[in-house]
Amino acid sequence: MSGTMSSIAKYPFLRQDFAASLVVFLVALPLCVGVAVASGVPAELGLVTGIVGGIVVGLLPGSSLQVSGPAAGLTVLVYEAVDTYGLPALGVIVLAAGLLQLAMGALRLGRWFRAISLSVVEGMLAGIGLVIIAGQLYAAAGLKAPASGLDKIAGLPGAFADAAGSTEALASLAVGVGTVAVMVLWKRLPGRVRTVPGALAAVVLATLAVFAFSLPVATVEVNGLLDSIQPPGADAFGELASVGIFGTIMAFTLIASAESLFSAAAVDRLHDGPRTQYDKELMAQGAGNTFCGVLGALPMTAVIVRSSANVQAGARTKASRVLHGVWLLLFAALLPGALAWIPLPALAGILVHAGWKLIPFRQVVALWRSHRGEAVILIVTAVSIVAVNMFEGVLIGLALSVVKTAWDASHLKLEIVDKGAGPVQAHLSGNATFLGLPKILGSLEALPQDRPVELDLSGLHHLDHACRTALKSWAERHSSSGTDPVKVTGPAKAAEPMKVTEPERATVV
Q1: What's the pLDDT tens digit per position in 200-255?
Q2: Which of 5, 88, 218, 392 could form a disulfide bond with 236, CB atoms 3.0-4.6 angstroms apart?
Q3: Each residue of 409-437: pLDDT tens digit?
Q4: Is residue 153 within 8 Å of 134, Cβ to Cβ?
């Protein structure tokens, strides 16, 4: 009795965490398998990443309640990497990305990922979502998807036409559509029913339907857990001689890190427990990816779907995510043959649903109404990922974000007040940099030469050397025709550099 009491005192939230771990396990199981199949790797590797994300990352400090594992957001990138460099090289890429994350965490760079434009991140997820949806629609019909994102989208009408003429393709497509329908409608069912995660229910119902009606639908190929784990060998490390692989490693690192840390910020808003320590969380993700790389498994990120399920199920400590990893391990060890019953179009349906949720429709509409420039960055990033590839699409988005920031920082407004008599008043506000000079000087030089001018700089936040020099030169030219000297008012820092000597007719007040 005393032992039981001491255990309760040591783990006061064990009951809540135990219950939450079962919910997260049921949510994670179909997603781990679905992400692996969609990435073009053995299904068991998705379970391996889920196990590492639960047990290894779950034990490390950083974020106490967010759950890590294979993510739909990296599906496209993993598929491209495996297609380009082969499955053995995947472990090398993931290992290198994990080591980079560890280094960035040690250098305390984790917090700086929060400075990445939210529009770029949401645009990245939207682009990934579009590519996932397009690719998995082919998989749902049992067809081979084209390689590029544009080809996937452009080829959909032809793919549906081909599917319409094939009984096997129609049966497969029906299973995929049914899976999506179950997941969408599951949220409208009574609360007791919804204790079973929608993804798991959809897979189970699809599996039952396939076997009940003997549908000609492909199922998951099972290789066995130990056979699927292939640590990278010397030949795989030889791929590092290819320059292109370093771009892929950087893409894995940046995207996985950004997605994990943005997820951590979102999870922190869902609970009142300890806040995320971003540098430690980045190192935890790095340790997990290093471990996955050694095992030749999929890369991992923190996953908002599992993390929110963990919080909503009542988890209080990191024990829930560790236990979910234990349940995945037990399933992979004791029931691996159960994977062979899962229809592939059902997994495609789960990924279509996940891809749809990655597209921030409401955010785009809200941004377009209030911050149109941010909306443009989001849309361009998404389209670039579809049209080019993941890495270059994100770089385009980041470049646009930097350009927009530079533009905003150099925003300068000139207001002219001319009452018809007396001096013309010119009010400058914003940030006066060389980027705004052509427009400002054009407006000032258009003022009547025979009228005195009062230039008010009090609304300026910044005045760079180029603008100070140009405004001083303009003031001298305007006053040289016999007009009263230009009067400049404003903060000392803005007005002081424009002081001129007495023979020059411009004066500063």
Answers
A1: 899 999 999 999 999 999 999 888 878 888 899 888 898 888 888 998 999 899 88
A2: 88
A3: 767 788 888 887 778 888 888 877 777 77
A4: yes
Query: 342-364 in b/e burial notation, b at 16+ Cβ within 10 A?
Result: bbbbbbbbbbbbbbbebbbeebb
As a whole number of Å, the CA-based R_g of the chain is 30
Give the residue from 403, 426, 446 where a domain finishes.
403
Reading the block at residue 203, the tokens are: 């897979």
Identify the CA nearest to 441 among candidates 468, 408, 406, 423.
468
Bridge pairing between strands 487-489 and 453-463: parallel
Each residue's pLDDT tens digit, 248-264: 999 899 889 988 887 88
Q: Which residues contact 501 (CB under 8 A, 6 or more apart)?
A: none
In terms of Cα–Cα distance, which of 154, 152, 155, 125 is closest to 382? Answer: 125
Indicate if 153 and 263 belong to the same structural domain: yes
450 and 347: one domain? no
Do 437 and 383 sit in the same domain of this protein?
A: no
Q: How far apart are CA 194 and CA 226, in angstroms?
A: 34
Instruction: Find the domain containing 432 and state its range.
Output: 412-508
2 part of a folded domain:
no
Beta strands in 70-113 (DSSP E): none
| Cα–Cα distance measured from residue 400 to residue 381, given in angstroms and rounded to the nearest whole number | 9
**Nearest partner of 395 among 135, 127, 149, 153, judged by Cα:** 127
List of long-range contacts for 381-384, beta carbons under 8 Å, 24+ apart: 381/119, 381/120, 381/123, 381/124, 381/126, 381/127, 382/123, 382/124, 382/126, 382/127, 382/130, 383/127, 384/127
* Domain termination residue (choose one: 347, 371, 403): 403
Best-predicted range by mean pLDDT (100-109, 116-125, 329-338):
100-109
Sign for the pseudo-dihedral over CA of 245, 251, 254, 255: negative
First to last CA, the chain: 86
Residue 385 — pLDDT band, cuts 50, 70, 90?
A: confident
For the chain, how many structural domains are there in total?
2
pLDDT confidence of residue 207: 93
